[in-house]
Amino acid sequence: MIALLLIFGILTLTSLPQAVFDTLRYYLIEQAPDFYGPPGDRLSTGIVALPLWLYYLWGTFRLVRRKAENG
What we know:
The protein contains two helices and no strands. It is mostly helical. Helix 1 (2-28) runs antiparallel to helix 2. The two termini are 20 Å apart.
């Protein structure tokens, strides 16, 4: 469970800022070079990874809390 939490955490924390930057660059810079395509790949990765990461984070907290209560 901890490994999945780390994987989704790293994936989310790296893809979301890049997706925001790519989206702003795509819509705000008028004369972007041709190799700057639409930001759909990184944006979709961030949108999908964030709920998964939050789900695993919530599950990990529940597991740790249960183990602490049971001793």
